[in-house]
């Protein structure tokens, strides 16, 4: 299908954190949703992306499938009705805008902290899940590899990814600000997934050095602690350690671990003063703020922090958009070439059919050597005849004028319209 790519998106830009966590999907949820979309819709080239800041579904289809997909998300999350979440979704039905949106999201232009490099790894995982589910066709394969190549160009040619202006770095900056008046503040990091590990790495560049790490899988906490000069504790000691902390940072999903108001109230005067929740769903009760001297921060509170790195990234945005625009021009040319590929193949097949018919009529009395010679000559003639319209069509594609030529070729040789098939090109 050509020019039918769409995007269904819910992000921090239009949805509060409570709505985002209501529709947030882990890996199993994303894979389940891919299966549901495959079973109940005719969508192709489907990719499901869900992070703490967004839940999105990209797909190719003739019809607008947003209502059906939102219902499938609700089923996966166990909703009875969808009216509470539907208004927060934005549906991009324009092909070019949907392609551009995926470029912008993948390269960090749409991230809460602009240029956050974590998003590309999350996009790569989403693409892998789509491929595993056989939901990634030629169009999506080519688009994703184009995006990955464009990311390398942006990395090499601009300052957009310079510095450490990411969610994890912004977290460290926030903790530094909150503990400025403390001597040797004690920080407890709960969870060592991607974002937790990045936070610990960034603390390695900070003046704050009293870091304790807790994780259900102890060897992971131990490995990260050794790498970042922190201290690892066993998971069963996490509540005991919390009583010794000034700051608690959690990146463990709330459906796996939760710090409630009552839990902290029991700690009394030993309760931590600051809580930073990087989880989705949230794992730290917002009601803790009702306790004396307690403050709770979540991913919506960790805004773009005024750093030199962020200033450089913002200044590089026009250059990044220009590189993306150039990549989209090349990708669109490939898309148009794929549209003409079936017609050219049919054209060649029709000429080959004529060639075979004529050879059958006139080569019966020829010897083997003569038949081989005639076969070679006629094949060369056919290939040269096909090459001329192929080159002209390719040039027309570059000019955006291929449709009229395709229609003329189809009318002259009575060719049927078919969907383009192609093997994804690897970079």
Automatic annotation (TrEMBL):
Give the catalytic activity: (S)-4-amino-5-oxopentanoate + tRNA(Glu) + NADP(+) = L-glutamyl-tRNA(Glu) + NADPH + H(+)
Query: From which organism does this entry originate?
Result: Pontibacter amylolyticus
Name the enzyme group at the top EC level: oxidoreductase
The metabolic or biological pathway listed in the UniProt record of this protein is: Porphyrin-containing compound metabolism; protoporphyrin-IX biosynthesis; 5-aminolevulinate from L-glutamyl-tRNA(Glu): step 1/2
The chain positions of domain Tetrapyrrole biosynthesis glutamyl-tRNA reductase dimerisation read 319-415
What is the protein name stated in its UniProt record? Glutamyl-tRNA reductase
Residues the record marks as site: Important for activity: 101
Q: How does it assemble?
A: Homodimer.
Q: Any remaining note in the record?
A: During catalysis, the active site Cys acts as a nucleophile attacking the alpha-carbonyl group of tRNA-bound glutamate with the formation of a thioester intermediate between enzyme and glutamate, and the concomitant release of tRNA(Glu). The thioester intermediate is finally reduced by direct hydride transfer from NADPH, to form the product GSA.
Where's the Quinate/shikimate 5-dehydrogenase/glutamyl-tRNA reductase domain? Answer: 174-303
The family assignment reads:
Belongs to the glutamyl-tRNA reductase family.
Entry note about domains: Possesses an unusual extended V-shaped dimeric structure with each monomer consisting of three distinct domains arranged along a curved 'spinal' alpha-helix. The N-terminal catalytic domain specifically recognizes the glutamate moiety of the substrate. The second domain is the NADPH-binding domain, and the third C-terminal domain is responsible for dimerization.
What highest taxon heads this organism's lineage?
Bacteria
Q: Which InterPro entries match?
A: 4pyrrol_synth_GluRdtase (IPR000343), 4pyrrol_synth_GluRdtase_dimer (IPR015896), 4pyrrol_synth_GluRdtase_N (IPR015895), GluRdtase_dimer_dom_sf (IPR036453), GluRdtase_N_sf (IPR036343), NAD(P)-bd_dom_sf (IPR036291), Shikm_DH/Glu-tRNA_Rdtase (IPR006151)
EC no. given is: 1.2.1.70
Q: What does this protein do?
A: Catalyzes the NADPH-dependent reduction of glutamyl-tRNA(Glu) to glutamate 1-semialdehyde (GSA).
Provide the binding site for NADP(+). 191-196
**Where along this sequence does the record place binding of substrate?**
51-54, 111, 116-118, 122
Name all Glutamyl-tRNA reductase N-terminal domain ranges: 9-158
Catalytic residues in the record:
52 (nucleophile)
Q: Which UniProt keywords apply?
A: NADP, Oxidoreductase, Porphyrin biosynthesis
């Amino acid at each position: 299908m050509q020019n039918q790519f769409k995007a269904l998106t819910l992000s921090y830009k239009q949805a509060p954190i409570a709505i985002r966590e209501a529709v947030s999907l882990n890996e199993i949820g994303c894979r389940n949703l891919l299966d549901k979309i495959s079973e109940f819709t005719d969508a192709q080239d489907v990719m499901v992306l869900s992070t703490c800041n967004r839940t999105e579904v990209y797909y190719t289809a003739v019809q607008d499938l947003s209502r059906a997909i939102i219902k499938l998300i609700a089923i996966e999350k166990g909703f009875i009705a969808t009216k509470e979440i539907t208004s927060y979704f934005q549906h991009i039905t324009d092909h070019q805008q949907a392609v551009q949106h995926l470029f912008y999201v993948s390269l960090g232009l749409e991230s809460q902290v602009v240029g956050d490099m974590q998003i590309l790894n999350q996009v790569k995982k989403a693409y892998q899940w789509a491929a595993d589910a056989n939901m990634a066709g030629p169009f999506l394969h080519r688009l994703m590899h184009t995006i990955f190549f464009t990311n390398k160009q942006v990395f090499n040619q601009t300052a957009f990814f310079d510095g450490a202006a990411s969610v994890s770095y912004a977290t460290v900056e926030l903790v530094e600000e909150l503990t400025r008046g403390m001597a040797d503040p004690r920080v407890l990091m709960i969870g060592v997934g991607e974002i937790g590990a990045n936070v610990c790495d960034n603390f390695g560049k900070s003046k704050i050095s009293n870091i304790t790490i807790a994780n259900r899988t102890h060897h992971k906490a131990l490995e990260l602690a050794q790498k970042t000069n922190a201290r690892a504790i066993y998971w069963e000691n996490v509540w005991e350690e919390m009583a010794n902390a000034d700051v608690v940072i959690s990146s463990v999903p709330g459906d796996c671990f939760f710090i409630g108001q009552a839990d902290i109230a029991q700690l009394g005067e030993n309760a931590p003063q600051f809580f930073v929740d990087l989880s989705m769903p949230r794992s730290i009760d917002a009601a803790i703020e009702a306790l004396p001297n307690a403050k709770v921060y979540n991913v919506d509170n960790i805004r773009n922090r005024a750093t030199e790195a962020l200033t450089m990234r913002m200044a590089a945005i026009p250059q990044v958009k220009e590189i993306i625009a150039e990549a989209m021009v090349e990708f669109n040319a490939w898309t148009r070439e794929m549209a003409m590929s079936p017609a050219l193949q049919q054209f060649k097949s029709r000429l080959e059919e004529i060639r075979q018919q004529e050879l059958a009529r006139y080569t019966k009395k020829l010897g083997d050597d003569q038949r081989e010679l005639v076969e070679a000559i006629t094949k060369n003639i056919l290939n040269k005849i096909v090459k001329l319209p192929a080159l002209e069509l390719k040039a027309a594609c570059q000019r955006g004028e291929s449709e009229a030529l395709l229609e003329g070729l189809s009318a002259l040789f009575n060719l049927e319209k078919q969907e383009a098939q192609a093997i994804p090109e690897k970079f």
